[in-house]
Amino acid sequence: ILPPAPSRSTFKTVKPASVSAPDGADPGVVAWVASIAELLEPKDVVWADGSQEELQRLIDTMLDAGTIVPVPKRPGSYLARSNPDDVARMEDRTFICSEDREDAGPTNNWRDPESMRQVLGGLFDGAMRGRTMYVIPFSMGPVGGPISKLGIEITDSPYVVASMHYMTRVGTEALQAMHGTDDWVPAVHSVGAPLAEGEADVPWPCNPTRYISHFPETREIWSFGSAYGGNALLAKKCFALRIASVQARDEGWLAEHMLLLRMKHEDGRQLHLAGAFPSACGKTNLAMLQPTIPGWTVETLGDDIVWMRPGDDGRLWAINPENGFFGVAPGTSEKTNATAMAMMTHDTIFTNVALTADGDVWWEGMTKEAPEGLIDWQGRPYDPANGPAAHPNARFTVRAEQAPSIAPDWDAPQGVPIDAIIFGGRRPTQVPLVMQARDWEHGVYVGATVSSQQTAAAEGPVGEIRRDPFAMLPFCGYNMGDYFTHWIDMGHRLSRHAPKIFSVNWFRRDDEGGFLWPGFGENARVLEWIAGRVAGTAAGVDTAIGVMPAEGALNLEGLDIDDAVVQELFEIDAKAWLGELVDVEAFFGQFGRALPTGLVRQLNHVRWRLEHV
Ligand code: GTP
Ligand code: MN
Ligand code: MN
Q1: What is the pTM of this model?
Q2: For the CA of 456, the nearest atom of ligand 1
Q3: Under a CB-based contact definition with an 8 Å cutoff, are residues 354 and 374 in contact?
Q4: Ligand 2 mean position, distance from CA 279 (Å)
Q5: Rounded to the nearest whole angstrom, what is the distance from the C-alpha of residue 141 to the centroid of ligand 2?
Q6: What are the start-end ranges of the H helices in 449-546?
Q7: Is the predicted pLDDT of residue 462 greater than 80, yes or no?
Q8: What pLDDT sits at residue 280?
Q9: Could you give phi then psi for residue 548, rounded to 5 degrees?
Q10: In 10 A of CB 575, how many CB atoms?
Q11: Are 241 and 94 a contacting pair, CB within 8 Å?
Q12: Per the annotation, does 522 bind a ligand?
């Protein structure tokens, strides 16, 4: 069985010397680390200090082991090739182990915490034999900030430690902040591949048995078997979304799968916007948008996770708790995201991309044609018969400060006050380019009914579209019905200070399957209308499903687009919407008594309007 979660009452039992803790480390931290070391039996223990020298040592270790190879064209950059069986998040191996099954809700995999502790206790017993155990103290958000949180990840993967250096604030300062408190999240990760005396290692050790487990009551994370980012960088999806969403429920704030940006006009207008889209639906792209309309610029604040808390002024204040970007590489190009291309010219860890003959990286969509002499993501000469050169979920990892568009105050501890929240997904039909929710409760309904096509190729009827409420389906650490209630409550608390809520859809298609809307930089036009709605200067028309731009209110100046196409972007097909409501009702039904009545009211209201208008 696993040792208990750290608590200040259990410190006394441990001999701190056994884990070579840095001077001044909190005894509670040391006691917990010692209890983990006793279970995992590593050959040695290394405490991460977050320094440049440490990063270099990790890189040297990984080069020796063959985990990474240099990318000579980009200084300080490396390519990691994972085991071909360890390339993505594993939703079916992700577990929420709450005491009460109801607390996990119908959309999560639940396991009884006691029996899970037994299973994990067996797997983790001696799991780090022959390996180094790294202890990574980290802070999500600036250390000591009013919205920030602390954690410790223990891992036996140097790839994880190096990635954490880029993605979070790692090291001594975070460790010192843990002094005298047990308000930090304990997270244990092992690749699950102990080495016997004299046994040779492989470049990417992992274990086909995998568990990504969360214990919401004790705030613990235990991850076994995979070294892929979403399963192994425990600060990200496991802590900053699944555990943090539970903390947010208990403490009265929000932890969301959102981008965060500021859009500014030369004349002083500005908009702070947070947006939730499901994975691979454009958060990183929108966060780095280069507006095509004159006068506006976008500053990036975050591309994947946002923590929001009501401030003393009654407004909702938001930070990006991360320190870097872990973005999807395929499809990223000078044309679609020049900012991302510019930030990856140096000091980047690439995972599962292809390598060119002249020592650069490549992926599908970077250029039209694949260059000659490519080595694919599995290290073989590229042959289209083996599939794509880069894995479709290939990623880049860079520090946030490397983005040319990063806001100068992106790491301000208090964050920024949110004006607008947008929800979107990949919807080939039906959902208009942009629409405003009538009020907060309607906005929560819009968030709760987010849905998206799994792949752009799978064109099809409503049934093939997956509901992904708030883009949080894989990331909500508790009952999603209770999560909806928490959002509705937040609206009451914020009242007249509540951000305005919108829905967007960049992905509506014409009869030939082409996108109706040019997207990318042109999305600034939609954000400009949103800014106008917030300021009270842009006109809107109330429709059955929400408020849409009035005639001429959406700035289309200089855009080559037919009136008929614009019509189509905003067309409401009442019959199709009524059909969809049947699906929404079934989706809501699974939450039973946990579903807030406000969402039922909104559903009935939309249905009534569609039937009567
Ligand atoms: P995660 O990092 O997995 O959470 O996903 P994400 O939401 O950050 O997705 P990302 O920005 O990486 O989405 C990339 C995909 O969306 C690529 O295929 C892009 O080409 C496409 N995309 C982004 N913005 C637009 C747009 O405005 N129009 C169209 N047509 N495609 C877009
Ligand atoms: Mn994401
Ligand atoms: Mn992203």
Answers
A1: 0.96
A2: 18
A3: yes
A4: 5
A5: 17
A6: 480-494, 523-535
A7: no
A8: 85
A9: -110, 160
A10: 8
A11: no
A12: yes
